Amino acid sequence: MKRLGLGGLFFGWLYGVPFLLLVGLIRRMSRPYTPNADDAQAFGATTDALLTTGLLLNGVLPVLGLLLAGWAGEALWRRHFAWAFAGTVLLYVAVALVGSMATSSLIGHVPADLEPDPVVTQCIPISGGRGCPGG
User: Fold this and answer.
1) What gap in Å lies between CA 68 and CA 24, rounded to an integer?
2) What are the distances in angstroms from CA 8 to CA 52, 71, 77, 81?
3) How many helices (DSSP H) and strands (DSSP E) are in the chain?
4) CB-CB contact of 21 with 58 (8 Å)
5) Distance separating alpha carbons of residues 108 and 131, to the nearest angstrom
6) Contact 123, 133 (CB under 8 A)
7) What is the DSSP string of 84-112?
8) What pLDDT sits at residue 94?
9) pLDDT digit string, tens, across residues 101-125
10) pLDDT tens, 61-112?
11) Sign of the dihedral through C-alpha 87, 90, 92, 94
């Protein structure tokens, strides 16, 4: 049971964390169909949750696995989780590189909505002799 739990933790980090980060980055770089501001806010919040969860699990799972492997006396899994720290650093560097290439921040970005600009139905002339735009 110990090996199954440690293996699940390790492979959860190995495959789950990059999946969360990749999905979050794809969502961040895509232009979603967001017809109104509420949909755009919800899309941005989901993307932020995926990226934040992936970044947190990237740091927590190897530490937790190393502690549990040491407590269980599993030398093989201790070595696996010790090497996982190199992968953790590589994932953080990869996300930092993608973040540096982005036009805005990775977390906290809300995509633009597709609502049309409101139609001006009345015009109040501006003082100084200029009339309303468009006549």
Assistant:
1) 29
2) 21, 17, 11, 12
3) 4, 0
4) yes
5) 41
6) yes
7) HHHHHHHHHHHHHHHHHHSSS-SSS--PP
8) 92
9) 877 777 888 887 777 777 766 766 6
10) 999 999 999 999 999 999 999 999 999 999 999 999 988 887 777 788 888 7
11) negative
**Amino acid, single-letter form, for residue 119:** V
72: which 2 tokens? 């269980």
Please choose, from the candidates 114, 111, 115, 116, the residue with its C-alpha nearest in 3D space to the C-alpha of residue 43: 111
Distance separating alpha carbons of residues 5 and 83, to the nearest angstrom: 18
Q: What tokens appear for 111 in the block?
A: 């995509």
Specify the residue for token string 């980090």: 13
Which residue is listed with tokens 């969502």? Answer: 27
> What is the C-alpha separation between 8 and 14, in angstroms, rounded?
10
Look up tokens 């921040």; give the residue.
105
Q: Specify the pTM.
A: 0.76
Residues 6+ apart with CB under 8 A from 44: 108, 109, 110, 111
Cα separation, 68 vs 64, whole angstroms: 6
